Amino acid sequence: MADGFLMEVCVDSVESAVNAERGGAGRLELCSSLLEGGLTPSVGLLQVVKQYVKIPVYVMIRPRGGDFLYSDQEVEVMRKDIELMKSQGADGLVLGALTEDGRLDAELCMELLAVARPLPVTFHRAFDMVHDPAVALETLVSLGFQRVLTSGCDSSALEGLPLIKRLIDQAKGRIIIMPGGGITERNLQRILEGSGAQEFHCSARSSRDSAMKFRNTCVMMGAAFSAPEYSLKVADVSKVRTLNAIAKNTL
Q: PANTHER family per the record (predicted)?
């Protein structure tokens, strides 16, 4: 791994993807709908991002927001999306599924991993919703996931730091534990030093005002919690650079 660490930046636009690479990201997690924690992006977005960046692009496979308990039809969608993203040049995939009692859905994960082969697969933050993280980690290792993205089953990676450290100790290099969730310039050093992680995940975004001059303030395009229509969140080159520099100095 270059410089002994790898920074993965979560992006939902071509602009963010380009900015992340310019700032020094080593890999992208490509999603849509970051407000919902990231959903499967369009094939068009993947195709265009692949034209503009050279670093690996891992594609989120998540058919909807909410929980990680999927119906047969949703599984069908996930299988199709995996096949499509593979055929369109995805370098890796990001997915996860749970049972109703909060365990990893090993059967479904095995099925999806088989469709994903030979691409490397990350288990996403569905891990943070499991009943027993230590047991879940062993299941991930036995299934053959390459890494797990986790905030340590807490509201952010900083809050979850003690568990992240325990998971890295438990993993003993059999699977990569990648901290993510609320990572910023202010807490990255503490998270890396406190966990011993070699990879980390962030969005490094800042808000940019829309170029729209005419604005209808009476209308909102999504649910009440949605971001304002006239403010765009984009990966910030300088933020990515800063995080990169902190990681280099820490590790």
A: COPPER HOMEOSTASIS PROTEIN CUTC, COPPER HOMEOSTASIS PROTEIN CUTC HOMOLOG
Residue closest to 168 by CA, chosen among 160, 156, 157, 176: 176
Burial 78-97 (b: 16+ CB within 10 A, else e): bbebbebbbeeebbbbbbbb
What does the DSSP assignment read for 167-182? HHHHHTTSSEEEEBSS
- Please tell me which residue, 62 or 2, carries the higher pLDDT value: 62
Q: What residue type is assigned to position 228 of the chain?
A: P
Q: What is the rounded CA–CA span in Å between residue 236 and residue 18?
A: 10
Domain with residue 69: its CATH number is 3.20.20.380
Residue 8: how many other CB atoms lie within 10 Å:
24
**What mean pLDDT is reported for the chain?**
94
Q: What is the 3-state secondary structure (H, E, C) of 125-143?
A: HHHHHCCCHHHHHHHHHHH
Range of 173's domain?
Answer: 2-250
In Å, how far are 114, 190, 215 from 211, measured between CA atoms?
45, 37, 10
pTM score, two decimals?
0.94
User: If residue 123 lies in a helix (H) or strand (E), which one and from where to where?
Assistant: strand 121-123
The Cα 184–Cα 200 span in angstroms is 11
Residue with tokens 């280099």: 248
Q: What span, in angstroms and rounded, lies between the C-alpha atoms of 234 and 211?
A: 14
- Per residue in 127-161, pLDDT (tens digit) is 999 999 999 999 999 999 999 999 999 999 999 99
Residue whose tokens read 């310019």? 22
DSSP class of residue 120 equals -
Main-chain dihedrals φ then ψ at residue 27, nearest 5 degrees: -160, 150
Q: Work out how many domains the chain is built from and give that number.
A: 1
Please tell me the distance from the alpha carbon of residue 173 to that of residue 119, in angstroms, as a whole number. Answer: 19
